[in-house]
Amino acid sequence: xxxxxxxxxxxxxxxxxxxxxxxxxxxxxxxxxxxxxxxxxxxxxxxxxxxxxxxxxxxxxxxxxxxxxxxxxxxxxxxxxxxxxxxxxxxxxxxxxxxxxxxxxxxxxxxxxxxxxxxxxxxxxxxxxxxxxxxxxxxxxxxxxxxxxxxxxxxxxxxxxxxxxxxxxxxxxxxxxxxxxxxxxxxxxxxxxxxxxxxxxxxxxxxxxxxxxxxxxxxxxxxxxxxxxxxxxxxxxxxxxxxxxxxxxxxxxxxxxxxxxxxxxxxxxxxxxxxxxxxxxxxxxxxxxxxxxxxxxxxxxxxxxxxxxxxxxxxxxxxxxxxxxxxxxxxxxxxxxxxxxxxxxxxxxxxxxxxxxxxxxxxxxxxxxxxxxxxxxxxxxxxxxxxxxxxxxxxxxxxxxxxxxxxxxxxxxxxxxxxxxxxxxxxxxxxxxxxxxxxxxxxxxxxxxxxxxxxxxxxxxxxxxxxxxxxxxxxxxxxxxxxxxxxxxxxxxxxxxxxxxxxxxxxxxxxxxxxxxxxxxxxxxxxxxxxxxxxxxxxxxxxxxxxxxxxxxxxxxxxxxxxxxxxxxxxxxxxxxxxxxxxxx
Length: 585
Description:
It is elongated and about 115 Å long. Helix content is 9%, strand content 51%. The chain has a 7-stranded mixed beta sheet. The chain has a 7-stranded mixed beta sheet with strand order 21-22-15-14-13-24-23. The longest helix has 15 residues, at 2-16.
């Protein structure tokens, strides 16, 4: 209480000591002021929010209601009838402004300053020069195109940002009002190849790209894009003839999409729908499958756009990334030249062929062959000749792999269970004996004259995601049907098995040259880890809360393509230098 009384006494003393006395607020003075004065309302854009304040127009001068100004800046406003002064006070920044009608002087935190325009009283309200009061309250006020633009926290702060637009670098300028960023419509339009026109009479802004026309104005939150009206999160404005707007709003209105965290704009939008099985064509291009359309795409990861669509799925990419192979529903083998986009049928054989694997020289394809997956064969691509390498009639071979030097084959096989019947005619099944049917890894030495399949394992666990390392060591994920026992990562070296990662929820595993990559899930967090056998050490590459379903490390650099599960299906993302980016939506 003592501080308040002391402050009032000090303010009164300082006001009394000013060069000329403050005019009395009597009825005669008020009546004289009213004679040539008109009151109305004024549109104000405060940090992107449209508001109206009461305005006073006198002899070409526009003043704004002091109480409304205080409200815009979240300040307190009061009138002291005893000492006949008005007070505007703001705590952040700490400002106390004392004003009196008709006086071109004010007290700011106890110090006298000159005012450009004397405050005027109209009715029960004091009207003030908005520009100067805004500056005293720690902000900025500027009027253009019929709308006052207000920053309540500091002056308008210009900025420039570097964005990737379809993979190319673009600079976009902007202004910050308060804590809200607005972007130059001219710069965004230029990135889209669009034009901008501002009507000098109406302040209407028109952005045109081809047949698409976007209209908005600084008096409204409404944006009209091709006849479709949408609501803007913040009101646009014009400064120095340049319109500024919310970035996402103008990007979407122009038909594009935006990843703000990555500062990436796709002018034609991102590829949408389920995308799976990414394969690296080169350092900047992925081959991805599109199950919804039964097709594949060549995806440029810099622009995140499709370079080409292929009307086939389940393509197997050649080692040099220039060709891809597939088998149609009739069992015929085809090779697509991804450079020339030509398709060649390889031979006339229509037997079932699965698990295609390219030879290192790209001249042949290995496959699991036969309707019951009972053989392993190689197809010569120059003439379509098929040669069976393994024809032991053991059914259900899967996961065919070729060593990096092309001298060894690896596959998984599970023997059939023995069916016991109750009758001699074998029409009524009594039981099925599944002992000895556990899947096992089989190795074939292609340099051997006999090419005999050699079992590498005999354990009862499931064996998935098997792969060769560059030194011919073999790794695989060992899993059981017991939900309480998580998978393990195992390696076979010189016939000796060792565990590299024990009892972890391994989602996927991939090998690139001598490095092993795994995705491990724990408590809803998905972590990609890399194992270097030469140092026997693990390194964390990246983490995310999004569900990773598969990984495809690049053989060219440190990038990793991943598939992630979403509500709309799986999409492809990229992990680069610890940062995530969406390639498809």
